Amino acid sequence: MDQHPIKAEVDAFAAKSRIVRTPCADGEMLFRCWDNSKAETVVLFHGGSGSWTHWIRNIEPLGRWFNVVAPDLPGLGDSALLPDGYRAEDAARWVAGGLEQVLGETAPFHLVAFSWGATVASLVASQYDDRLESLMLVGPAALGMMRRRPQMKPLLRRSSGMSEQQIFEVNHENLARLMIHDRSRIDDLAVYLQTQNTNRSRFNSPQFAWSCLVLEALRAVAAPLYVVYGEFDAPAYPNFEIREQRLREVRPDMRFEIVEGGGHWVQYELPDVFNARCIDWLRSHCQ
């Protein structure tokens, strides 16, 4: 897979960034920074079994208006794994420490976070609310137990004996089951990123999905809050009403929206729609 023709495209995009390495347990966490010198900063947290590439269709449009910072969260992408017995709070602690090194101890910033990243972002936001200009959560979990989507098929497993084509087919199918609603929008880039990201995933984020971590953390966050789900977000469907209700119990002032036609990875599946909403939100909360 290292010689995949899309690899050069992804590497070229990554090469436009400035890399900052910060401590993470016994290793390092990587922050990629696309600088727009006079702009405010937006920090992007990716989802579970992912990396900064969850935002590959969003970084350039956001970068026209903002400095963009996208870390690989602990145990994912190019960042070091946490020790056995880790908690979500441990991941947030290392991420928060890294942000201080990347941004400085006083600079304000915006946070936009996807799926597992929304849990980390909520915990980080509760510590840095005085510096946080806005918080946008995309497809968040950790809102407590609720009924599962009955028609969602389990993800397919890969095995060591599979050919490259078989792995491609499995990851294509898994994207359709979990991440992207409209199969026609699953392109070769999406499958490549899914393959690379899952190959490097060493952090079990689903274990925190049914916790109340996001709700508990948001009680300590006063920054403007925007929550977005795709209309067919597989892990969230069909429980949008109860998700909104629980969120409003702790943040009645939040903005809550459903993106028509989108799945869980809505920022990739419908980038034009997502980028317009995200940029409008961020700009409305700039100093």
What does the model show?
This protein starts with a helix and ends with a helix. It is of the alpha/beta class. The protein is built from 10 helices and 8 strands. An 8-stranded mixed β-sheet has the order 1-2-4-3-5-6-7-8, with helices on both faces. The mean pLDDT is 95. The chain has a single domain (5-284), classed as Rossmann fold (3-Layer(aba) Sandwich).
Short description:
This protein has 287 residues and is of the alpha/beta class. It has a single domain, classed as Rossmann fold (3-Layer(aba) Sandwich), CATH 3.40.50. It is 37% helix and 17% strand.
Helix content: 25-40%
Strand-residue fraction?
A: 15-25%
What is the distance, rounded to the nearest whole angstrom, between the alpha carbons of the first and last residues?
Answer: 44 Å
Strand order of the largest sheet: 1-2-4-3-5-6-7-8
Number of helices: 10
> Which CATH class?
Alpha Beta
Low-confidence stretches: none
Q: How many strands in all? A: 8
Taking all Cα atoms into account, the compactness measure Rg is: 18 Å
Q: How many individual domains?
A: 1
Main pleated-sheet profile: 8 strands, mixed
According to CATH, the homologous superfamily is: Alpha/Beta hydrolase fold, catalytic domain
Which structural category fits the helices and strands? Answer: alpha/beta
Order of secondary-structure elements: HEEEHEHEHEHHHEHEHH
Principal-axis shape equals globular
